[in-house]
Amino acid sequence: MGGQMQQSNAAAAALYDHSGPASDAGDAVMARWLQSAGLQHLASPLASTGIDHRLLPNLLMQGYGAQSAEEKQKLHRFLRNLNLSGESEPYTPLAQSSGGAAAADSFYSTELRGDFGAGLLDLHAMDDTELLSEHAISEPFDASPFMPSVTRGFENDFDTVTSRQQRSQADASFKSSTNEKETTGKESNLAKIKVVVRKRPLNRKEVSRKEDDIVTVFDNSYLAVHEPKLKVDLTAYVEKHEFCFDAVLDEHVTNDEVYRVTVEPIIPTIFQRTKATCFAYGQTGSGKTYTMQPLPLKAAEDIVRLLHQPVYRNQKFRLWLSFFEIYGGKLYDLLSERRKLCMREDGRQQVCIVGLQEFEVSDVHIVKEYIEKGNAARSTGSTGANEESSRSHAILQLAIKQHRDGSELKGGKIIGKISFIDLAGSERGADTTDNDRQTRIEGAEINKSLLALKECIRALDNDQIHIPFRGSKLTEVLRDSFVGNSRTVMISCISPNAGSCEHTLNTLRYADRVKSLSKSGNPRKDQLPNTLPPTGKDSSSTSSIPLAVEPDSYYDYNQEEKPMDIGRRTVESFSYNSNADVDRNRQSVPPNYSFSSREDGGLNSSAVDRERADITETYGGPTSSKLYSSALESYPIEEEKVQKVSPTRRKVNRDEKAEKQSNWPRKEGRSDLPTMGYKQQQQQQSDTNSNYVSRQYESETQPHDGEINAILEEEEALISAHRKEIEDTMEIVREEMKLLAEVDQPGSLIDNYVTQLSFVLSRKAAGLVSLQARLARFQHRLKEQEILSRKKVPR
Ligand SMILES: Nc1ncnc2c1ncn2[C@@H]1O[C@H](COP(=O)(O)OP(=O)(O)OP(=O)(O)O)[C@@H](O)[C@H]1O
């Protein structure tokens, strides 16, 4: 015991003795850290005396610092998030990466370490479990200094000064954070998959139409969508859908902040043999391009800065850039006059894109020029869902290569890379039901790739051995990003207007499935029946109001202030009486308010919703309506209503659609779903989640995908055959010219000429007939597909 006390005293002395030039900056950061962990009372003495955060673990020691079990727990968790061992792991100087002997001392200074930690506190260093665990919600750390304040989404008087200060802190911390991470390997603590949602502001058109903003962001990681609905008696009400993600960025968040939250933390990892992928997903016009376009440039800036570090300069690391698109299942080089590219697998199953131009870049200005050039070459066009939709997936890759003199590999061996993917609008499923054949095929291809991407991400996060990357061209191309060391950031972009509600929910459900079905994504999902009051909300982790529970248990739940009551408070701030809501919920009576009061119907989300979104979104059109009606077999009560909710998609342009929906679509909520028992709901939900989609996917979509694949393959074969036929014809023409030249010679044998000419002409004719037959087969196939797809779509 005495020894223990001595040790504690020594720890205390060490804590307070520490001083030096770095300590001032470190103190402020430390105080902020401790405050964010609810341990501000421990911060005050430290702030005035100077503390080295490396000695923080000593606070856990007996007799010093944290006294109560709760404090210790908090501190322990806090330390874990700082990557400091709660077991007082001794501080050891940072290991230098290979060849890093030349790194300057300042590179690893304590000051920099302090700032690094502050920046990573809740978004980067935290693992998924922390972010999603109940405890983390009830006692959240403060938002990262990079993130907007909690209340910003609801207050007009946002403190821009604070924001600017935070931003400059963030800027200052970047250098240190990257330095720190690259040498310590702490980035391995970054989640393999991070799902971030970004809400764009209402645009001018939406404002002029007086459209409501139906998306509320709170606490930087939650959001609620207030879906306007009409009951059978035409009374308007609002159904609230709540979601929780690693980060939710509201409309005030700048592109710089988006970068800091999403890509910045993974940049150092690509110097350590990691393949990173960042992609934006969402309906057309939701801000994918707006979000994605600045990211590669910022990433390139940081990469170039790091490349100048002696440790990498000495190893001859260089940055290479390529930019291509996948359009209708084919690859085109955006930096080389949209030249068609071929994808090949080598003997080691490495995917290489034959003919793709790569450019070594050492100057960020050149990177900018390439990005602009590539963007200008992207395919855009008019579709059933949007007149100016991106019709392609654009992929910009930044690769770090180690230059080797005499290496046959262009640029040398790949060390790591980051791919930025601006996906085609997710609503392109609408194109499968209407439009011309080309647009339908494109839409089906896009749906297929979005589904395949999700499947790969899930497999990746579950450390599955088999990654289904062959599901689409997109995932095949990204194959090496799905194996080995990889990091994925998904940015789901959403529009806030009521007219986009359905698409917004689809996008959020896609994101939710990517995250929540993965191993690390949402541990609360598994714990649901035991640790949380039942919920049938969209997000398995976020609902404040159970979908259908026994009245008593529900009442108990509402008596306590549970973490997700944040959402409830938020809604209340729009003005309504939550008690009334509680009572109503207890009786399972559908609410009866008008939308303008922003009241919370709160009961009606369901697994059906979720599956419907998944299916509608991923398959769209003909398949979706069929799948969806099958889904209803599990929900017989709702069958009729739900079909109304998800009408067959028609060709409606964005304006028409917004117009239509802003008049509140005459949809009926599944308000009687709550009358089902909770267990029944859970059972159905889990059945639906685990089996239904895959079963449907197998039975319904694969034939459809198969058709599309077959058509694309035949198309490819026809084009190759045509090309081959031209080459043969040219060869034959050359032979004919030779024959003519010979026959003109004095003493030539006419018999020879006749025989050879006959042979040559037969070959010519055979080539043409074969090409014609292939063409006729393909035409027939297209007709068949058209008839089939029309049969599938009830009009
Ligand atoms: N966060 C934002 N802040 C301000 N304006 C935004 C934001 N997000 C998007 N916008 C604006 O909204 C419009 C549509 O955005 P954008 O083109 O990025 O959508 P998209 O999702 O890429 O669409 P598509 O799938 O058709 O390519 C643009 O004019 C863009 O400037």
Automatic annotation (TrEMBL):
Domain Kinesin motor: from-to ranges: 192-517
Segments of skewed composition (Polar residues): 160-177, 587-596, 686-696
Biological process terms in GO annotation: microtubule depolymerization; microtubule-based movement; regulation of cell wall organization or biogenesis
Family annotation (Pfam families): Kinesin (PF00225)
Chain positions recorded as ATP binding sites: G282, Q283, T284, G285, S286, G287, K288, T289
Coiled coil: 712-743
Places the protein is found: Cytoplasm, Cytoskeleton
Region called Disordered, residue ranges: 160-187, 517-554, 577-627, 639-702
Skewed-composition ranges (Basic and acidic residues): 653-671
GO molecular function terms noted in the UniProt entry: ATP binding; microtubule binding; microtubule motor activity
Annotated keywords: ATP-binding, Coiled coil, Cytoplasm, Cytoskeleton, Microtubule, Motor protein, Nucleotide-binding
PANTHER family per UniProt: KINESIN-LIKE PROTEIN, KINESIN-RELATED PROTEIN 6
Family to which the UniProt record says this protein belongs: Belongs to the TRAFAC class myosin-kinesin ATPase superfamily. Kinesin family. KIN-13 subfamily.
Protein name: Kinesin-like protein
Organism of provenance: Amborella trichopoda
